[in-house]
Amino acid sequence: MTTVFIISAPSGSGKSTLTGRLLQELPRLRFSISYTTRPPRGHEVDGKEYHFISREEFERRVAGDEFLEYAEVFGKDLYGTHKSELDRAAAEGVDLILDIDVQGARQLRDRIPAAVSIFILAPSREILEQRLRARSQDSEAVIERRLHEAAAEIGDYLRYDYVLVNHEVEASVETLKSIVKATRSRRDRMEAEIRPILEDFGDVS
User: What is the pTM of this model?
Assistant: First the structure.
């Protein structure tokens, strides 16, 4: 049984770092590689960080209902999760991790109500701004836009199953791991393993 884990956060909250550590440290997790119309940055490789396609190709796939969710970010670039990502995870018997924005998370929760959603926050606006500036990859205008977007996105935390305030990476990674482990121990996930044990004891219904 495949569980979808949605991880969202305002830009600069540390979402990508935490997601990467989670994937390294827990087995049976697959990262969902999104499609995007933006060009690659730095050393990004097509099919690794993202699937890079043209806007025309993206819109053709939208018309064909190929995405579980998609969104236009900052009124410029399109991002989306292809249905094949979930199909592939189910075929492999692993859980799927999605690192997506608030817009995409809203759509995905509607399509997959059983998905487990986690919202990550920086401890304060000041720290979020410090983290954005420390990346040294955005202009002043982009930083201000990201802070403005963060103010709008934070209100969505009430829609998530879990909220994680990212004070310190190691502690936050352990919290994320605990959420995944607890989800995997839910009764509906354990039925296949529990049934033979119950049968050993005869009829216990």
Answer: 0.89
